[in-house]
């Protein structure tokens, strides 16, 4: 199930013409003006929202948001668009990889 969800995310990424951010590419320094990808949790916190508030505004359960933030499951394309609007970030600026995957 997770693999299909991640594939949908990657397909969305490709359909929007987005490339993997520099922070996700191994051994590539970040260029001037380039931003590092942030976690979903960091984007939420930067928006001043609690998990409860963000989940309500996104129309999902707190458990679902928690699962996304821990990279156990991944949002579908519509939820990605909602996240972009709510948090004021581009999908390209978000890192959905677990921290221990590097």
Would you mind describing this structure in some detail?
The chain has helices spanning 2-15, 40-46, 51-58, 62-69, 77-87; strands at 38-39, 94-95. The chain is mainly α. The protein has one domain: lambda repressor-like DNA-binding domains (434 Repressor (Amino-terminal Domain)), CATH 1.10.260.40. Strands 1-2 form a two-stranded parallel sheet. Helix 3 (51-58) packs across helix 4. The longest helix is centred in the first third of the chain and has 14 residues, at 2-15. The protein starts with a helix and ends in a 7-residue tail after the last strand. The model is unreliable at 19-30 (pLDDT under 50).
Q: What is the CATH architecture term? A: Orthogonal Bundle
Distance between the termini: 22 Å
CATH topology: 434 Repressor (Amino-terminal Domain)
The tally of strands reads: 2
CATH superfamily: lambda repressor-like DNA-binding domains
Count of discrete domains: 1
Output the radius of gyration. 13 Å
**The biggest beta sheet, please?**
2 strands, parallel
The level-1 CATH class: Mainly Alpha
Shape: globular
Put simply, the count of helices is 5
Mean pLDDT across the residues is 75
Describe the strand arrangement of the main beta sheet, using strand numbers.
1-2
Low-confidence stretches: 19-30
Strand content: under 5%
Give me the strand/helix succession: HEHHHHE
Class by alpha and beta content: mainly alpha
Query: What's the helical proportion of residues?
Result: 40-55%
